[in-house]
TrEMBL record:
Keywords: ATP-binding, Cell membrane, Coiled coil, Kinase, Membrane, Nucleotide-binding, Phosphoprotein, Transferase, Transmembrane, Transmembrane helix, Two-component regulatory system. It comes from Halobacillus aidingensis. Residues 1-143 form the Histidine kinase domain. This is histidine kinase. It comes from the Bacteria. One of its GO terms (molecular function) is phosphorelay sensor kinase activity. One of its GO terms (cellular component) is plasma membrane. It is found in: Cell membrane. The keyword Cytoplasm does not apply. The chain holds residues 305 to 454 of 454 of the full protein. The keyword Transmembrane helix applies.
Length: 150
């Protein structure tokens, strides 16, 4: 279905902030129309925001960058981060970094992988131990949204 991304992000962020009493700084100024599965995209965003919430204490940041063929949505936190070694494994089912075995089951990111596959999106995770993590969702822009331009 055709959606407008900035509105979807606003409503998703607002419900997340209300549910968890955590500040999310959303930076998305322009309207972006694209064809995607709204429900799956919301679930995907929630997984990354939920991790940012669990593994950091400061405000979470969500920003959007529009490229010619895709849209990059980034969820960033300034939390505990993780090592490169762990980064390679966190998408596996049930994998949790030793220090963070307090909450959850290690399933969020494996579900994220499946959702991304269904959305034909790519995921990138970058992290540095002690300084934070950035998750990027690269969503393809369809032909007709491309023609809509703006
Ligand atoms: P849940 O089943 O509730 O999703 P989870 O958060 O442990 O639990 P994943 O979302 O799959 O599961 O994440 C796997 C592991 O990756 C986490 O246990 C944590 O160690 C690490 N991780 C994920 N996101 C972050 C982040 N933003 N900062 C630091 N570590 C993270």
């Amino acid at each position: 279905e055709s959606i407008e991304l900035s509105r979807l992000l606003q409503t998703t962020v607002a419900s997340f902030e209300k549910a968890y009493q955590r500040k999310v700084e959303l930076r998305c100024t322009q309207e972006i129309h694209l064809t995607t599965d709204e429900q799956k995209l919301k679930q995907l965003l929630y997984i990354f925001m939920d991790n940012a919430r669990k593994y950091s204490e400061e405000a979470i940041e969500v920003n959007v960058e529009r490229k010619e063929n895709h849209v990059a949505i980034r969820v960033m936190d300034r939390g505990i981060g993780m090592s490169q070694k762990d980064l390679e494994k966190v998408f596996d089912r049930f994998y949790q970094v030793d220090e963070s075995r307090t909450e959850g089951y290690g399933l969020g990111l494996s579900l994220a992988k499946e959702l991304a596959h269904a959305l034909r999106a790519d995921l990138q995770l970058s992290s540095e131990k002690g300084s934070g993590t950035t998750a990027t969702i690269l969503l393809p822009r369809s032909e007709d949204s491309h023609l809509q331009g703006v």
